[in-house]
Amino acid sequence: MRQGVRLGVDVGSVRIGVARSDPSGLLATPVETVRRGRGDLARIAAIAAEHEAIEVVVGLPTSLSGRESHAAAAARDFARSLSVRLSPIPIRLFDERLTTVSAAQDLRTSGVKGRRQRDVIDQAAAVVLLQAALDAERASGRPSGRLLEKPLENSPGRPIENSPGRPIENASGRPIENSPGRSIEDPPGRPIEEPRDRPLEKPQDPRSGRPPGGRPASGEESP
């Protein structure tokens, strides 16, 4: 079992439940409920930094048949946005089927009902989610869920950079390719040539075509 704190994030349309594990990755406990809206990503990133999390597990709600629902697509989009804030901390997507139902049952068994249950149900769902992920990792010896893939740095639409923060541009001001072992080309197929030093050319007499004061060639008459 890997050592380090994990966070569990249960994404809802109104609230987000957050849970954390102990450093040994054995037990999940509730942390807080974050309101959806402005600042929710920053708050979760702050919690991850506070607990020095090595990983964040985001619940992916699926149907009983295993198909992803609209809520699953929303959770995946949220996870992608969160990954920008958390980088380089990895995010894993974990099937959270029936976690809210299980959390509600656990709360009722504990005597938590009514409004109090609504206040903590999201945290409880995050605890159920994270505990299931921890148990799965302990049983298999491998990280549970699916790792959220991050977009490539040089993805289509982004210029390739030659020096940090400075894209290579052609004469028209558009970024161009600069791959190892290949010349920079502008336009495609023709390498950009650097200007070379050339000897200065003397001006010519427009009538004779010779430099001023130059001697006439053999067979020519002097003016």
Brief write-up:
This protein has 223 residues and is of the alpha/beta class. The chain has a domain at 6-143: Nucleotidyltransferase, domain 5 (2-Layer Sandwich).
Report what the structure shows.
The protein contains 4 helices and 8 strands. The radius of gyration is 33 Å and the shape is elongated. The N and C termini lie far apart (100 Å). 24% of the residues are buried. It has a domain at 6-143: Nucleotidyltransferase, domain 5 (2-Layer Sandwich), CATH 3.30.420.140. With 223 residues, the protein is α/β, with parallel strands linked by helices. The strands form 2 sheets. A 6-stranded mixed sheet has the order 3-2-1-4-5-6, with helices on both faces. A two-stranded antiparallel ribbon has the order 7-8.
Based on the model shown, name its key terms.
4 helices, Nucleotidyltransferase, domain 5, two-stranded antiparallel sheet, 223 residues, 6-stranded mixed beta sheet, alpha/beta, 8 strands
How are the SSEs ordered, and which strands pair?
Blueprint: E1 6-11, E2 15-21, E3 28-35, H1 40-50, E4 55-60, H2 70-86, E5 91-95, H3 99-109, H4 114-140, E6 146-147, E7 161-163, E8 166-167
Parallel strand pairs: 1-4, 4-5
Antiparallel strand pairs: 1-2, 2-3, 5-6, 7-8
Helix pairs in contact: 1-2, 3-4
